[in-house]
Amino acid sequence: MTAHPGRGGELAAVLLRVAKGLHGFPGCETYLISQEAADPDTVHVIEVWRDEACAQAALAAPSPAGGPAPAEVLALLASPPHRTDLAVLGGVGLPAADGQI
C-alpha cells in the first residue's frame, strides 16, 4: 500500500491496530505489517489465512471496539492497494494441515 506522502507511519499504525483486532480471529495464521526501509510511505501487509472463507469472514466482521474502520485505512492511501494472492507451498513457519512444512 502506498500512503499519501509523509503519512506512511500513520498508515502503519492504523494497520497495526487492525492486526491487534485479528488476534485470535478464527483462521488468521499470520498478519504482518512492514514498511519499506527506502520508502516509508510504502507499507506491506502479509496475511496468511487458513482458507478464503476465513479471510472473507474477517473482512465482513465489524471492527472491534477501538479498531479502525476500513475508511480510516483508505483515507491514508495515495492509490488503491495492490493485492497478490499466493498459494503457500511450504518453507519455514506455519505447519501444513498434516503437520509438515
SSE blueprint and pairings:
Layout: H1 8-22, E1 28-35, E2 43-49, H2 52-60, H3 70-74
Antiparallel strand pairs: 1-2
Notes on the structure:
Strand 1 and strand 2 form a beta hairpin. This protein has helices at residues 8-22, 52-60, 70-74; strands at 28-35, 43-49. With 101 residues, the protein is α+β, with helices and mostly antiparallel strands. It has a two-stranded antiparallel ribbon. The longest helix has 15 residues, at 8-22. The chain has a single domain (1-101), classed as Alpha-Beta Plaits (2-Layer Sandwich), CATH 3.30.70.100. The chain contains three helices and two strands. The mean pLDDT is 89.
Keywords:
single chain; 101 residues; alpha+beta; Alpha-Beta Plaits; two-stranded antiparallel sheet; 29% helix; globular
Brief sketch in words of this structure:
This protein has 101 residues and is of the alpha+beta class. It is 29% helix and 15% strand.
How many E strands?
Answer: 2
Largest sheet: 2 strands, antiparallel
The amount of beta strand, in percent, is 5-15%
* C-alpha geometry: globular
Which structural class matches the secondary elements? Answer: alpha+beta
